[in-house]
Model the fold of this input.
Amino acid sequence: MGTIEDNPFYQEVTTRYAHLHGHASAKGYALAVPRASSLAGYVVNEAAVMMHVLMPAASETEFITMDRRHVTLDKEHGVLITGRGFRESRSVGIQFEEVFYNADFQPFTIFCIEEPLEGGLSFLFATDDDEFESGGASGGADGSSGGEETGCGGAGDGGSESSRDLYTLDVFPITHTYPEYVSLLTRLASASLVGSIVPALCEFNQTPINPQNNHAYTVRRLRALCDATLTELEVSVDGIREAIASEPQYQVQLQVAVESFVLGGVNTHLFAVLCQYHARQERRVQAGIAALGAMGLDEMDVRPELAGCELGEASRMVELLRECRTPLEKKMVVRATLQTITLAVETHLEAGAEPLNADDMLWLVVYVLCRAEVSHLYAHVVHMREFTLYSASLQELAYYVASLDVAVAFLAQRGGTNVTSDDDDDDDDDVDDGGVEAAAGWSAAGAHELVNQSQEAVARDAAVTT
Amino acid sequence: MAAAAAASKHVDLKIVFLGASGVGKTSLVQRYANDTFEPTQSTIGAAFTLKTWHGRRFGVWDTAGQERYKSLSAFYCRGAGAAILVYDVTKADSLHALDAYMDLLASAKDGCFKVLVGSKLDLAPDAREVTLDAAREYATSIDALHIEASAKTGDNVMDIFNHIGVGVFGFDAMTASANGSPASTPTPTASTSTVRLDDDSAAKSGSDKKKCC
Done:
């Protein structure tokens, strides 16, 4: 337990950014101060401070930050809710609020909040014993002094269970969810060791992402983060090297676990950039969905015997993409979706009928996507396709991603004919359909653009795989 | 947990089927999936099959064959270590239709092992339109091994995959394994990705099962 004066964020505000603090207090603006443990690795720079200075807006429960983002106070639930201008809507609990007075004895409020309004990785290491103490002056919660990187305050060691007991392959099935991987790695290596990567993740989250070159640079940065984490684990945790030497598969599973940890930690930042960068293609995909959405299977290019196939469950399945943090989680959703389609088809077809083939699958996936409520489909595909750092060899999952990739590319091409010039006036590759291809909304030229994007990633994939 | 385990299967070799619609790609995949000693570990209809070949995992990918989806097949070809290019021995057009698919293999691995497969061999005695010489010449031009096969009778289907396995992993991979019982023993090859088999007599014999050329 610590006082507000011990909080590294507050210390930075009142020292390095005293001009902002002085301005805010003079104007009677509120200041949101994230609790110490939520600042693990968080870079307290001017932008971060400005994001936490809350200026009054239209009502007493609405604020605009100094960098023009919107925050709403929900008094009933005791939370600040981030809105327009933030990368995600986040509901941040208020531990308490305290009234301070400026030099003119005018009051201004400080909200002590659970985590930063944006960024930070507090959810990884949240504990119950690092709350502020309102008033008083007990020792600091983490003893950190508010530098650029604050270390891993609040991360318990979590190591009551012998990590050696966990060196079995069973604890690393390759299809864990992101929270499970975090838990597994923390148990394996202790929270403090795993948490040592957090500053790097926070730095990644607080720096711009350059999406050029088909995200190659970003992939390299993230791969380097993973490599560094793996090296640290091998060096620091007894038995890992021996486990890898005795069972090569263990190394693969460890790599996938670290990959999930890293990609999950940067997901909010990264995926927002993917959505923004691929907005044009997404418009095409959504236009394609709009164009085909009203069509029944019997109107699509599938075999007549598949027309009555019930695919509602598959559409509900693919909607789970919205809840995934890592590419691996998304691949598992796609896998489940395609398997649901397969099961529906096999149930529907009579014995002895021609089995499901790739031509059928294309249209069935298109049909399912048209009936699911999933936005940013194109970004999801890019996320899965490009941000596979170690798990490229999981080719069964690769098949499912390719199937979705093909269907989304098809929708993008179909939608390419329907996007108006106002929507898409920067396109120089728009479609010149004719004949049969026009009937299907298909453009070979446009397809090659998409294919080329895919091919650009091949060289990098090969490098990653090796 | 079983589902999780299946999804975690690594694949040692990705094989893609390419060819025009109706040439019999799906039937060949089905025959391979259902008619080998090695167990089939996973399938998505005939669109994806995961099988083991002498301890190596083959992921066999069917691709959309319709003309207007052809460009999309490049998505399936990414990182492929082997490609099976299928034509119908009873349809002359289907052989040179494969020209359009060669570009797609640019996204496959360097040195992608190619096999040109003439399908529907069982119909050849009465309806052959693609001669062995023409097919062989085409195979040479694309640096591929040539085999004729029948999904209906099963003739040579296993050989396609045996030759691919040997061509990619080497003859030792087959002989060293105690698992499985291959239908035939392919010709040992060098470590290059192209295999040439000279067995004209077999190719010309309607009763002979070996029709590799």
About this structure: Residues 1-8, 178-213 of chain B have pLDDT under 50 and may be disordered. The first helix of chain B runs from residue 2 to 7. Strands of chain B lie at 13-18, 40-44, 48-53, 56-61, 82-88, 113-119, 145-148. Chain B touches chain A through 44 residues (CB under 8 Å).
